[in-house]
Amino acid sequence: MRLLMCIAAFGLLACCGCKSVRPATVTIGKNTWKVELALTPEQQYKGLSGRYEISRDGGMLFVNQKEGILRFCMRDCHIPIDVIFINSNMEVVNVYEMKVEKDRAGSIAYSSYVPAIYALELAGGTIRREGIKVGDKVTMALPE
Asked: What does the alpha-carbon distance between residue 23 and residue 80 come to, in Å, rounded to a whole number?
């Protein structure tokens, strides 16, 4: 039920066309990040492309309408990015340390391989530094 409420809340934010949305908070273990939301197809396509830095306590949460196999790439990315795939049970199902591609074409695909509904992108090196692994529980606080 909580997941449905979360999806409904994100859907409402996406539909209202709000440009200034407070960040969501995502916690895994003892670590908490304040992240931007990628709700629309346009926001999700752009993601963190073109950025030259991600704060240590920041990132982006991609919210999908339904659970499925998710695929990400490093199109036009100038810095390493870690991606964490999260399922509807709020568990980490896969993680990657994505490297910058020399041509920035985004030709390498990083797949969740199992159904996921969220993808959390953080600054490169976060997964290793914080010891995030498959099976970790995730909590989220959504903007009102």
From this structure: 22
Where on the phi/psi map is residue 29: left (φ > 0), alpha (ψ -120 to 50), or beta? left
DSSP code of residue 39: -
The pairing of strands 59-68 and 31-38 is: parallel
Whether residue 120 contacts residue 27, with contact meaning beta carbons closer than 8 Å, is answered with no
| Percent above pLDDT 70 for the chain | 85
Q: Are 59 and 33 in contact (CB under 8 A)?
A: yes
Q: What single-letter DSSP state applies at residue 73?
A: -
Nearest to 14 by CA among 70, 76, 61: 61
The whole-model pTM stands at 0.83
Statement: residue 113 has pLDDT above 80 = yes
Q: Which CATH number fits domain 2-141: 3.40.50.1260, 2.40.50.320, 2.60.120.1140, 3.30.70.60?
A: 2.60.120.1140
Query: If you average pLDDT over every residue of the chain, what do you get?
Result: 86
